[in-house]
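Need tokens for this chain, all 142 residues.
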Amino acid sequence: AFSVVSKLLSQRKLDLLDELVSAEVLQVLKEKISLLPDTHRDALAADIDAIMYTTEGDVRIYYDDDGRKFVSILMRFWYLNGANLPDEVPGETKVFQIVFGDESTKEKRHLLTANYEFQREFTEGAKPDWTITRIEHPRLLE
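Here are the structure tokens for all 142 residues:
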């Protein structure tokens, strides 16, 4: 889900996110994406093969005022991206120089982070669909 959503964000295909992302988050994304420079927008995309590490940041089970049961999972992702970002982009972990072929051909990759929160209602009879309720790409999508 992270890879698919991040690519759709990068491509500005926000209309395809209606079923995946909460309406509140989608509205904020529409405003932010329209203001991003192309290089930052390109850096949002995470190919599934470029995801280096994932970890859960927070897992919560809670009930709303009507007694409905929800589960929320915050996931953190570290991914490599070849967008043409300046070396001094704050918040990124490290810039890698990856060599393919001979020593004269170098491709710069940035190790970037993203936080996505997934929520699902677990009340009996509820649809078993997960919704993304938070999307953060630090220093790129602010």
